[in-house]
Amino acid sequence: MKKSKFLALLLALAMTFTLTACGNKDSAGDTSAPPAETSGDVTDSSDTGDGQQAEDSDLAYVKDKGTLIVGITEFEPMDYQDASGNWIGFDADLAKAFAESLGVNAEFQVIDWDSKVMELNGKTIDVVWNGMTLTDEVKSSMECSNPYFNNAQVIIVPADKAAEITDAESAKDLAFAVEIGSAGKQQADANSFNYTEVADQATALLEVSSGTADAAIIDYLMAAAMTGEGTSYENLTFTASLNSEEYGVGFRKGSDLATALNEFFASAYADGTMQNIADTYNIGDMLVKQ
User: How many structural domains is the chain composed of?
Assistant: First the structure.
């Protein structure tokens, strides 16, 4: 009798242990959470609509901080300061209009032109908008807008020397001043000119005017605005054109701001905004149709 009771007790204990172990496995041993319920039409709100995630969207970034930082150099008639120190010019005015269309403010920051890509990638600026020639190097290192202005690189010389300098060959023996990292420098290299690099095109003009350089290579638009009768450099003129080129605006590689700007360009060209601004600075004949 005692043996039967003892066996019954062991059987009861074994069953209790088995049930307890099974219960622990179901409640604590399996730590995986049940799958969350999702709707079949749920979308990721971080997608901007063109496949670019919001955290990678320059457009979202600029709108969130409320400013578009525009990298420039002093370059009349594109970016220069009025008597009150405000930045004006065709590019400056158009950049303000574009920023307004995004619901943000445009802020202008003078940069070292040779470091423009580094400035973009470091996010100290959001855009390079300064009569920038669309060279192969520029297009490979930045996300560029559609062309919006025609231009050329021209030779600047003292007015009394103009008759002697009619083409690249006649300028071979001159000492040039060119902006560092510019399209003018590229033309100096292409023509094997002797040159010194300076900070910007305005400085290149000053070098020629002061006699520390024989000639300069700058953009046609700047030459037309700043040399000759009634300008800051009446003693200078431009002669030979070395090439033909187009201006564009540069953003960080892959930036969705380029698409936004192209859409703005199309609208601003259609409603006459671009033409009106260009006519203000007497360069309306150089616009590229959008």
Answer: 2
Higher pLDDT, 28 or 177: 177
- pTM for this entry: 0.73
Residue 78 CA to residue 108 CA, distance in Å, equals 12
* CATH number for 193: 3.40.190.10
The string over 178-203, giving b where at least 16 C-beta atoms fall within 10 Å of a residue's C-beta and e elsewhere, is bbbbbbbbbbbeebebebebbebbbb
- Contact status, residue 117 vs residue 141, Cβ threshold 8 Å: yes
Strands 215-219 and 175-179 turn out to be: parallel
> Distance (Å, rounded) from C-alpha 221 to C-alpha 223?
5
Report which DSSP code applies to 213: S
Q: Are 106 and 86 in contact (CB under 8 A)?
A: no
| Residue matched to tokens 């319920």 | 37
pLDDT digits (tens, 9 = 90+) for 128-147: 999 999 999 999 999 999 99
Cα separation, 200 vs 78, whole angstroms: 13
Find out whether the peptide bond into 77 is cis, omega within 30 degrees of 0.
Answer: yes
**Residue at 100 is within a domain:** yes
According to DSSP, residue 29 is labeled I
Contacts of 31 (CB under 8 A, 6+ apart): none
Least confident of 15-24, 131-140, 164-173, 275-284: 15-24
First to last CA, the chain: 106
Judgement on whether residues 187 and 269 belong to the same structural domain of the protein: no
CA 4/CA 11 separation, integer angstroms: 11
**Cα distance between residue 230 and residue 277, in whole Å:** 21
Amino acid identity of residue 145, one-letter, is S
